[in-house]
Amino acid sequence: MARRKKVYEGKAKILYEGPEPGTLVQYFKDDATAFNAEKKATIDGKGVLNNRLSEFFMSGLNAVGVPTHFIRRINMREQLIRAVEIIPLEVVVRNVAAGSISKRLGIEEGTPLPRPIVEFYFKNDELGDPMVSEEHIIAFGWATQQDLDDMVSLALRVNDFLSGLMLGVGIKLVDFKIEIGRIWDGDYMRLIVADEISPDSCRLWDIESGRKLDKDVFRRDLGDLADAYTEVARRLGVMPTGPQGAVKPTLIN
Questions:
Q1: Domains detected in the chain
Q2: Contact, 27 vs 228, CB < 8 A?
Q3: Cα angle: 197, vertex 235, 174; to 5 degrees
Q4: What does the pLDDT look like over 212-247, one tens digit per residue?
């Protein structure tokens, strides 16, 4: 097999050159990180779960008219995606107070917010991905006002889709983050959802018990991260289940 050219490696994924111009292969690693990579571990099967879950969410968004970079899944750990110019911002949508907003504003974790709140964070690990205002974004040329309006619209559409999907399987979508990229069709530029959507990038709580089914399990040492992610996949029908319930994923060649 010919050696593929690595384009980029992050904390949870590797990007390789794709088979066609304008495409990339996105590989999901088993690495788990928290607190800006100060806490690290390898979780067997995590990459398989996130690949399948991100495929499920991105395909669903494509189907309802929310454009994403996802083209198709290649195997258990890789998917073919469109190459995009990533806007250097994380877009966070919050439905319930948790994490940094609770600390910043003194709101008790679990408090429903009056409406979905969209926040922007500058993607820079060395700076700890600081929160930024629309004024910063426009002043420093990271995005235009029209881009920001489109990003908020995309983020809220993703929120509507994910919230309904999760509610149907007894899960509360507390918050999530997405990345957005630019693509060009000739001279026409448009924005699409990129990166991934998975329990790595969402806060997901069981509606009845409040059990956390996301990366907070790893951040706060609340149990087995693979079990939590597998439970999300099982409820959504993404991974097969056997007579004993959820089956942990295995890598298939």
A1: 6-84+225-246 (3.30.200.20), 85-206 (3.30.470.20)
A2: no
A3: 50
A4: 999 999 999 999 999 999 999 999 999 765 434 444
